[in-house]
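Quick question, first post here. What does this chain look like in 3D?
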Amino acid sequence: MKLTNKRVVVTGAAGLVGLPTIRKCLEQGADIVYAMDINITPEIHSLEAEFAGRCIGVKIDLTYMDQVESFFKKRHVDVVLHIAGIKGSPSRTAKSPADYVFPMMMFNTNVIKAAFDAKVDWFVYLSSVGVYAPADIMEEDTVWSTMPSKNDWHPGWTKRMGELAIDALKVQHGWTKWTIIRPSNIYGVNDKFSQDSTVIGSNVWKLFNVEGSEMICWGNGSARRDFVFGDDVAQATIDCVVNEVNDIINFGCGEAVTIKDTIETIVDVYKELTGKTKNIIWDETKPNGDLLRCLGSEKQRKYNILPKTSLKDGLRSTIKNYAKNYKI
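> Answer (accepted):
Ran it through. Tokens below.
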């Protein structure tokens, strides 16, 4: 199924994956992309100007079913890429789990049901690595015989419930026009950069916002993660539509790297771009998180839906863009 002349909804339009997804859909021939978010950011307005009449920002609160139903009743939609989610560090999810559970439960249910009722040609649900229990390799078919990690307990179950809603429509109504993608740890140009962000987002923030030559990092760096660049995830959502992948698939780089190697690479790229050096200090009184999170890649290889950006290249783009946009 080509995107040519299709009308596409992208939720979470202002985010890490949403923005590159909008651009890629338009560049690949979509007739109109409805860029849905609770706030229409300058980046969305920029895409509206660049793709005049084809990119339309839609300010909407997806947690309200009446707003979602009203939109779908008034407009014909062919494809829905449901990317919206709430991103944060394990420490933040542990302290404020309700900030994740309630909005995600509501907007996942609302968008899934509205897309089904509208009989869209294809629906993509962006799930999460957080649905898995810790394992050396996380395979798609193991999820429902395990429970999410305690480090991802509330958001992991919430993402699972979105998957279960899709399965319920499959069982009761035979719905097969969908793909569920479980991406690994996403980072990239439009990430949230703060002290309480995820591993890459928080450490990029530290580079530019913490004074002095020392950079304090949690744990001892031995935990390993499978990182994937946001632009690659954006392309994967489109590839699943084009190839009509009616399946649940992982999307990662297929190789776990240590947090130590990742942060050292961040510091190396920072020095390459700015000429400044940071010394990494490990605070071993802080937790490491799960020791290993790596997605199995057999299914994504089967469908030829693979990332193209190396970790170092992705980090270079991320840090370079952060420095530019924050005028540092």
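DSSP finds eleven helices and 15 strands in the chain.
The mean pLDDT is 93.
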